[in-house]
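Slide 14.
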Amino acid sequence: MRHTVDFLVIGSGIAGLSFALKVAPYGKVCILTKADASEGSTKYAQGGIAAVMYDSDSFSKHIEDTLVAGDGICDKEVVEMVISGAPERIRELVNYGVNFDKDGSKFDLHREGGHSEFRILHHKDNTGEEVERGLLEAVRNHPNIELKENQFAVDLITQHHLGQTVTKRTPDIECYGVYVLNGDTHQVDTYLAKVTLLATGGVGNVYTTTTNPITATGDGVAMVHRARGVIRDMEFAQFHPTVLYNPAEKPAFLITEAMRGAGAILKDMNGNEFMQKYDSRLSLAPRDIVARAIDKELKMAGASHLYLDARGIGKKELINGFPTIYAKCLEIGLNITKEMIPIRPAAHYQCGGIAVDKKGESSIHNLFAAGECSATGLHGGNRLASNSLLEAVVYAHNSAMEAIERAKTVSICQQVPDWNSEGMVFNEEMVLITQTRKELQEIMSNYVGIVRSDLRLQRAFNRLNLIFRETDDLYNRSVVTEELTELRNLIACSYLITKQAMARRENRGLHYSIDLL
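Slide 15: predicted structure.
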């Protein structure tokens, strides 16, 4: 089937929903999401949104904290723009119906690692879930927005599909829409739009253990890579230092950094503090430092996990301030008011992605990107805690403002052909996909994880090339399925992470190699 809209949005997290609400008064909007509308990374964000809301804090402090965490390679103009725009975007979220915790008439603010002040707006310890609820409710009540679930974006439509040769050196690549696998009919539909926004989230499932939902397979990044768009900073894969050690569970359950902000302390297998060996900020050092410290302690001890001791916070504050974590730990027989929490790092956030300008537009005309799939320059080498939801909502706003103007002058490209699956066959050997995915995750976890080396990266690169050739051959003769396309996307993102890690010849932020010491 062919569908035509003014604004096409791929993804239903904070970025996609915010963008849709802003452009909806100016045209027909369609949001496509690969699973249930709420099943994205936004829902899993526990900590909150960083923003300067009161005179006790300042933009300059938040800017400095972001630059320090980014290890000197943030785009300072972007940092200033995002942080100064934060209060207005927070007010908009509240107007959409999102509730943040308050202390009397003021917002109750948390503090997290790398922050010099209490500036994290939150809703208990399930902020993302509350943001998603409020925005989804507003979207579903808007007459100009159509929300379609179980729709999997396969590839961007560009001049390539009109028979033109498109390379990385092709000037003025244009996006006309997206080919989409309909999960109900199992047919590939054609969606044409004046403007397309990718808000497809992260790439966490390239690793064995991740806090990301199973839907986070780097679809937007991979599609732009195949369309010859610019991808940058993929070497900066952030590992959250503290997830609940519960190996059978996927995604890994996050233990928010706000718990350390409230006084929880990292301890080794013997119950001793260890962060004093690595950083004067102790358990509240930036995530890259904490994750590497934990990784080193695990390897030295030959242990599967360490501990986070939250017993000093106090029973009432623990239960009221972190009810989701408290309840989750009770489920596995752990009372965190009396026992320490077993933790280890897990893949958490991708600082790189689709390169965009300050208006949110990618190197491909009329294609915008916001949220974790984008690379704005805000995070530099390492994301400061709770800056991600902030970046998503600011860039959703910027993209929407530009998209509204762009849609006034852009025409729908009706010459686009429909998807051609003639000669394709169903792949009956699912084991080829599941085993390759598992192999890919092992390669990335063992060779391109928290600590890297030239030998590990080269070995990963060689293995990935083989996996790519095998999977590409399978894809080119098979009917499109979500599982096969996800694998294809994971391979593309793994290749980009590895290749860009090999190219960076300095230890900076989240990229750390023993050969660059």
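Speaker note: The chain has a mean pLDDT of 94.
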